[in-house]
Amino acid sequence: MSSMGEPGIADVGVDATYGLRRGILSPVQTLAQSISSVAPTCTTTINIPLVFALAGNGTWLAYCLAMGGILLIAACISRFGRYSASPGSLYKYATESLPPWVGTLTAWSLLLAYVETGTSVASGFVHYALVLLPMGGGHDVLWPMIWGVVVVGAATLFACRDVRLSSKLMLWIEGLSALSICIVLGLVLARHGVHIDTAQLRLQGVTPAGVRIALVLAVFSSVGFESAASLGHEVKNPLRTIPRVVMLSPSDAPMRVLATLMHVPAFGEIIDIGVCIGMFACTLAFITAAARLMLLMAHNGIAPRWLLRGTHTEQHAPVESVLVASVLVMLPLAVLTLRGTVSFDIYGWMGSMAVYGFLTAYALACSALPVFLKRRGELTPWMVMLPAAAVLAILLALVGTLYPVPPPPYNRLPYVYLVTLAIGLASSWTLRRQKQKPSTN
């Protein structure tokens, strides 16, 4: 039993359902959740160019370092997935092995990461929607607001339906998006041939500072791979499926988008349509993951209990949690848009904010693994070195976000993250205090 009086990690998914349907998602549908969260189409068209702007010829090195760290983290999380099938994913893993306050910290950092990433990719959808259908001009906020409501509203409707429907939708969307980009890149290679850029191999003009800052965006390209664990109760054979999905999903193939060099507008439009579709799938994936995380938080008393009511609908979907997650995703998008911030800047700001939440949750979950395995009598030297290496990689990534000090507003984002995290922790503390007060009746 855990220190919070919850079911043991090996028991979760056997007795508790939290109102969700059990065993309705196939391994492929489960993979769709993580693939949509990683959003390979977004990585190809937005993240890689941003990383290249910072790291130049060291872009491939930044992605190799990021991928190495992500794979270490994925190995730790997939180990937990062999024993647990819970809608709380990393939160549940940390709670079972570390003090209760650490579990609460993990929950809020992960929730902030999911919500902020949802806002980031929703703004990415707005950006590409305006590229495809340019309306208004200058700092007009009407159409960005309309497109923001469209993408978040549509994702909310699907997230409130049967999870099998949204999983199938995410799978088809990402598949078609990736296929369209592969076709375009295949045409580029067929027309221009394959060329080896020796300047990249020599790291010509690359500076350590540039690679360090770019590493943050490279990490953002793969975060969210663990979100399949949030579907634990709804997955068929979860203790086998989820570890495999977690290890398979962080497999983006960094490549530079070359279609613009062909000077053929139709090809650019194909990519833009694919990115819009992929951004929608990613928004849906993170709203789905955030809703299920809030479901477990409510069950454990660190979020309002009324969030549990929605699972008693016909679809067995956490409706209240979905609606709250959608509002949290839409709120910063609406505020920043009304302030005249362009959608591409919102993407970068919110995405960078999300990295802090992900890295905090990843570090805590990896730190919990040796404690958990020791209690089970399964701790080995390898299971000590693996989490240690993962935590070290996370610390190096955090250093890259803080030093050298980035320009405004990125230099203020760590403090914004800490303030929002403190507000969340304070709300959970207040809920626990109210629950502990003796009844006056």
Question: In words, what does this structure look like?
Answer:
The chain has helices at residues 27-38, 40-55, 59-81, 90-97, 100-132, 142-159, 163-192, 198-201, 208-220, 238-248, 265-299, 319-338, 343-375, 381-402, 413-436. The protein is mostly helical and 441 residues long. It has one domain (27-431): Amino acid/polyamine transporter I (Up-down Bundle), CATH 1.20.1740.10. Helix 5 (100-132) runs antiparallel to helix 13 (343-375). The radius of gyration is 21 Å and the shape is globular. The model is unreliable at 1-17, 28-33, 226-250 and 252-259 (pLDDT under 50).
Topology readout:
Blueprint: H1 27-38, H2 40-55, H3 59-81, H4 90-97, H5 100-132, H6 142-159, H7 163-192, H8 198-201, H9 208-220, H10 238-248, H11 265-299, H12 319-338, H13 343-375, H14 381-402, H15 413-436
CATH architecture: Up-down Bundle
Shape: globular
Radius of gyration from the alpha-carbon trace, in angstroms: 21 Å
Number of strands: 0
Considering the protein shown, what is the CATH homologous superfamily? Amino acid/polyamine transporter I
Mean pLDDT: 76
Helical stretch tally: 15
The run of helices and strands is HHHHHHHHHHHHHHH
Task: Describe this structure in a few short sentences.
By secondary structure, the chain is mainly alpha-helical. The chain has one domain (about 25-430): Amino acid/polyamine transporter I, CATH 1.20.1740.
